[in-house]
């Protein structure tokens, strides 16, 4: 009997992002990767109920945080409490995490090169600092896709104008870690539309020239 195929489910949730004294309305992409039995959530943003509904009766293996900005983690503790799933975050973003959740630490660290497996599919952790110190992307070669968080979008890098961010660092991360992936790799972003490595790679020098 053929095992059920791994699939990627997608939610868009709405809320706010706050940092450096400002607050902005945002829509976030929440990604779920798994099969009919088990799943990972990538970025538990804004609406724990909606995300739990999307998980359904599946076993939630973990809540992966691509970085510690509050719009990507605000619903993580509530989802963890409902499901018993651990929250995973790169330790270099714990300073950002604590701004939103001072009394609830992440459960497990993410490190560059870690491999998480769901439904027989491997997710490789790529540390891609710049948007934040502990930003990571999740590369699933079998699905020809990378979950880029706020590191790479359709049209350029994630924002680097606020605390704990660095434009030269995000450019290095994109150049060395993402644009080296196969051109057909689908980039599933933290906000907005997906793109591909091949569509974005030719524009790197333009981004460097404009400085964002």
Automatic annotation (TrEMBL):
Highest taxon above the source species: Bacteria
SMART domains the record matches: Lactamase_B
InterPro entries with a match to the protein in the record: MBL_Glyoxalase_II (IPR051453), Metallo-B-lactamas (IPR001279), RibonucZ/Hydroxyglut_hydro (IPR036866)
Residue ranges annotated for the Metallo-beta-lactamase domain, each copy included: 27-191
One Pfam family, short name: Lactamase_B
Name recorded for this polypeptide: MBL fold metallo-hydrolase
Taxonomic path: Bacteria, Bacillati, Actinomycetota, Actinomycetes, Kitasatosporales
């Amino acid at each position: 009997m053929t095992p059920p195929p791994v699939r990627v489910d997608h939610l868009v949730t709405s809320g706010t992002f706050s940092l450096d004294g400002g607050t902005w309305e945002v829509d976030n992409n929440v990604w779920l990767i798994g099969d009919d039995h088990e799943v990972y959530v990538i970025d538990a943003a804004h609406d724990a109920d909606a995300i739990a509904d999307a998980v359904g009766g599946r076993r939630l293996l973990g809540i992966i945080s691509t970085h510690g900005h509050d719009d990507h983690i605000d619903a993580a503790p509530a989802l963890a409490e409902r499901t018993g799933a651990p929250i995973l975050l790169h330790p270099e973003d714990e300073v950002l995490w604590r701004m939103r959740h001072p009394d609830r630490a992440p459960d497990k660290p993410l490190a560059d090169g870690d491999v998480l497996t769901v439904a027989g599919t491997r997710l490789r952790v790529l540390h891609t600092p710049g948007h934040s110190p502990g930003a990571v992307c999740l590369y699933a070669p079998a699905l020809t896709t990378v979950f880029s968080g706020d590191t790479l979008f359709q049209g350029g890098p994630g924002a680097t104008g606020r605390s704990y961010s660095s434009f030269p660092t995000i450019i290095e991360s994109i150049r060395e870690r993402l644009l080296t992936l196969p051109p057909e790799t689908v980039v599933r972003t933290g906000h907005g539309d997906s793109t591909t490595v091949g569509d974005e790679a030719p524009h790197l020098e333009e981004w460097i020239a404009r400085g964002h």
